[in-house]
Structure formats: structure tokens, C-alpha cells
């Protein structure tokens, strides 16, 4: 009886191009909107995971390997699998529904999300989130 | 995990309580609606039949763990659970939203 689909919850997408990719909920729309009359949420996720960085790598190589590509998407609740993990990255001001209106707004929003994700990955926290789900 | 031997008496009482819920309370039957009630935190008790596919059973249990909702593994298959609900079709999982006059939730919580 506890609501668990809240912002910052880590989820796994189940359908679509990003199936099997991990994402974090930015905003919920439990009762839907006029265009989407079902429960859905705005998620920001990892499109391309960072590669494994080893100690032998040079600084330039480490920087190249730690790159993350992000995506923003509106996704139905039935197409996500919630997990017990959370990702506490403040994406509320960066990601908003009007970022999805036009392509260049989406690209700039994704770039900012990418920067935040890379910053979080480099601290070494939330390692589960940045590891690829193998299936 | 040791499976406790379900005595006939407690099993019958669960059936009785379920019948009362069907009569007086609110419930939904079926996997899709069970997940829906778990997502919008309306479900109070989930019942799963014993022949529910293990992946589906684990998924429902995981959702219930996130939502902190009790799951009861009904000792009987989906045919029996459907009969216990008074329906003429199989019911593999069901979600009780409002128990009505029944005390099924208190009874099962008391058991555990």
C-alpha cells in the first residue's frame, strides 16, 4: 500500500528500443493526461552504457570509456519494471515535458542529463545503475 | 523455507472469507489488474494460485515487496481459486482492494 513509482526510482524498460535499459523516473503522471489517458512517467535513462575502466588505462582512455549516452522518454507504467534501487540525481529542472516537443530541445536536455550521469558514474556510486543488464 | 501443512480447517476458512469478500468487498482478478492495483497502491492483499508460472509469481511478489502488500500463496491451483471466488473460469491471481465485511486481511496477518 506504499506508492513506489516516485521520482528518482530506478526502473528497467521492458519494451521498445530501450528494452533492458535502466532509467530513473523524473516525473509521474499517475492519472494520465489528455493525450495519454493512462498512467505513465517521464524517465531519463542510459542509452549507451559506459565501458569497463581498468587501472591500466591512461587518463584519456578512461575519459573515453566513461562516456554515457542518455535518453529521455515518456513511457507507460506497464512497460517498465520498477526495482528497489534509486538514483538521486536532480533532473527535475533539466528534464521536463516540453523538452520532448522539438528535436533540438530534446538533444540539449539529453546532453545535460548525460553530463549529470557521467558525473555520477565517475564518483563510483550507483554502480548497479550504470552496469548493463545482460539478458 | 519449510512449507507449513495447511490444515483443512484454515483452508476452508480462507475460502469462506474469500466468498465474503466477493459478496461485500472490492477485488480484481487477473495478472494485469493485480499489477495495476499494486502500482496505484490500492491493493491490500494479493492471492496467487500454486500453479502460477514461477516468473509471474516472482514478479508479483517483487511488486508487492516494493508496495509493502501481503501476498498469500493459495493452496490450490487456478481452477480451485476460481471456484473459491465463485467464478466459472480459472483465476491465477487476484487482488483484494476493499475486504468489505470480511476479516481476511486481519486473519492472514494474524497467521504470519
TrEMBL record, chain A:
Q: Which GO terms describe its cellular component?
A: ribonucleoprotein complex; ribosome
Q: Which UniProt keywords apply?
A: Ribonucleoprotein, Ribosomal protein
Keyword Ribonucleoprotein attributed: yes
Q: What InterPro entries does the entry give?
A: Ribosomal_eL27 (IPR001141), Ribosomal_eL27_CS (IPR018262), Ribosomal_eL27_KOW (IPR041991), Ribosomal_eL27_sf (IPR038655), Translation_prot_SH3-like_sf (IPR008991)
In terms of Pfam families, this protein maps to: Ribosomal_L27e (PF01777)
Domain of life, source organism = Eukaryota
Protein family membership: Belongs to the eukaryotic ribosomal protein eL27 family.
Q: What is this protein called?
A: 60S ribosomal protein L27
Organism, by scientific name, is Penstemon smallii
Its ancestry begins with: Eukaryota, Viridiplantae, Streptophyta, Embryophyta, Tracheophyta
From TrEMBL, chain B:
Pfam families registered for this protein in UniProt: Ribosomal_L7Ae (PF01248)
What does the record list as coiled-coil region(s)? Answer: none
NCBIfam families reported for this sequence: PRK01018.1 (NF002172)
Q: What is the protein's species of origin?
A: Penstemon davidsonii
Q: Which residues form the Ribosomal protein eL8/eL30/eS12/Gadd45 domain?
A: 13-105
**Similarity remark:** Belongs to the eukaryotic ribosomal protein eL30 family.
Which domain of life does the protein's organism represent?
Answer: Eukaryota
The name on file for this protein is Ribosomal protein eL8/eL30/eS12/Gadd45 domain-containing protein
Q: Which UniProt keywords apply?
A: Ribonucleoprotein, Ribosomal protein
Against SUPFAM superfamilies, the record matches this protein to: L30e-like
PROSITE patterns xref list: RIBOSOMAL_L30E_1 (PS00709), RIBOSOMAL_L30E_2 (PS00993)
The record's InterPro entries line, in alphabetical order, gives:
Ribosomal_eL30-like, Ribosomal_eL30-like_sf, Ribosomal_eL30_CS, Ribosomal_eL8/eL30/eS12/Gad45
